């Protein structure tokens, strides 16, 4: 493992314990590629939000954030054009997109999600929230599936569904924290139904109403988590195990939000290490069934789910 891979591995270990634990289930090359991709995604998010590995470090003015976003776009383009890049994060990014022929549109779709944050986009409907969720998480699921060797559109759609499930869970868990920094990813129409404005979401008196909204969003995530489990049939066993484990851990957060109600609004929901081990073990059983018996069964349609924009037919940009 060289310096670029080591730094990327450290990024995932420090930035997300849940994803790091799931990534250990991959084979060595897939684990390395997943770390390389994660390092770039984490870096871009941190640059825009003024964070270090997801934790607040500084307050970023809107104009500065726009300039930083433009810089990220420029460096991403440079990596795709085959230019020599000095930043280890972009060296990691260039390596992973070369190795797995990731079309340029997908990283640009992720940067579009960061633009939506910079511009403080508001989300009127669930469809708007899902569109944002695609840009910051669904497209990451697609790129991760490419890392795992997937190329067919139906399985890439299922990978996107997992990212959507993850992000809907994130939004539900972080309503109060987001509101405190002036952000809201809940559908505004839902908030109006509860008589809530953005400034109300962090108020203790709104805990019951917020808990109803988060439970509603958790329910909306369920068909996306179910769809993702169909997709793991097409993965190698170790990749299927890693993805099933990550899916189970994140879904558990949503289930906890529903169980705890207003208490979960006041205190951030977490999954204990012991529970994570149980969910990872169960993921191994799910993966075994999926790649053995599941592959012999007809694949149910993705009826009623949000459909991502497609870059599948695009050729990877020259590197």
Entry summary:
By secondary structure, this protein is mainly alpha-helical. Helix content is 68%, strand content 1%. The protein folds into 2 domains: 101 residues, no CATH class; 176 residues, Orthogonal Bundle (Farnesyl Diphosphate Synthase).
Explain this structure:
- This protein has 319 residues and is mostly helical.
- It folds into two domains: 101 residues, no CATH class; 176 residues, Farnesyl Diphosphate Synthase (Orthogonal Bundle).
- Helices cover 68% and strands 1% of the residues.
- It is built from 14 helices and two strands; from the N terminus they run H-H-H-E-E-H-H-H-H-H-H-H-H-H-H-H.
- A two-stranded antiparallel ribbon has the order 1-2.
- Helix 1 packs across helix 2 and helix 2 runs antiparallel to helix 12.
- The longest helix is centred in the last third of the chain and has 25 residues.
- The two termini are 22 Å apart.
- The relative contact order is 0.12.
What general outline do the C-alpha atoms trace? globular
| Chain-averaged pLDDT | 90
Number of domain units = 2
What is the number of beta strands?
2
Supply the helix-strand structural class: mainly alpha
Strand % is under 5%
User: Unreliable stretches, pLDDT < 50, 5 or more residues?
Assistant: 53-57
Radius of gyration over alpha carbons?
19 Å
End-to-end distance, in Å? 22 Å
> Order of helices and strands, N to C?
HHHEEHHHHHHHHHHH
* Helix residue percentage: 55-70%
Strand order in the largest sheet = 1-2
**CATH homologous superfamily placement of the largest domain:** Farnesyl Diphosphate Synthase
Q: At the first level of CATH, what is the class of the largest domain? A: Mainly Alpha
């Amino acid at each position: 493992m060289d310096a670029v891979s080591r730094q990327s591995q450290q990024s995932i270990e420090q930035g997300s314990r849940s994803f790091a634990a799931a990534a250990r289930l991959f084979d060595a090359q897939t684990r390395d590629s997943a770390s390389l991709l994660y390092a770039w995604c984490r870096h871009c998010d941190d640059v825009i939000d003024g964070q270090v590995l997801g934790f607040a470090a500084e307050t970023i003015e809107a104009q500065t954030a726009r300039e930083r976003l433009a810089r990220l776009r420029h460096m991403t383009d440079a990596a795709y054009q085959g230019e020599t890049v000095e930043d280890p994060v972009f060296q990691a990014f260039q390596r992973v997109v070369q190795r797995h022929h990731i079309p340029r549109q997908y990283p640009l779709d992720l940067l579009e999600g960061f633009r939506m944050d910079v511009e403080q986009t508001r989300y009127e409907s669930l469809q708007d929230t899902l569109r944002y969720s695609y840009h910051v998480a669904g497209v990451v699921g697609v790129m991760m599936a490419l890392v795992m060797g997937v190329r067919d559109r139906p399985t890439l759609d299922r990978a996107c569904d997992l990212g959507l499930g993850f992000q809907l869970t994130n939004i539900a868990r972080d309503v109060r924290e987001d509101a405190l920094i002036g952000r809201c990813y809940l559908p505004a129409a839902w908030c109006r139904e509860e008589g809530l404005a953005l400034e109300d979401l962090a108020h203790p008196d709104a805990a019951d109403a917020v808990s109803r909204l988060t439970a509603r969003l958790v329910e909306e995530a369920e068909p996306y988590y179910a769809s993702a489990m169909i997709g793991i049939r097409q993965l190698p066993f170790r990749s299927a195990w890693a993805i099933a484990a990550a899916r189970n851990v994140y879904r558990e957060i949503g289930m906890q939000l529903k169980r705890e109600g207003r208490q979960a609004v006041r205190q951030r929901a977490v999954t204990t290490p012991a529970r994570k081990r149980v969910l990872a073990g169960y993921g191994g059983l799910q993966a075994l069934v999926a790649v053995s018996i599941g592959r012999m069964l007809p694949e149910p349609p993705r009826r009623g789910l949000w459909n991502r924009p497609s870059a599948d037919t695009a050729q990877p940009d020259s590197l």
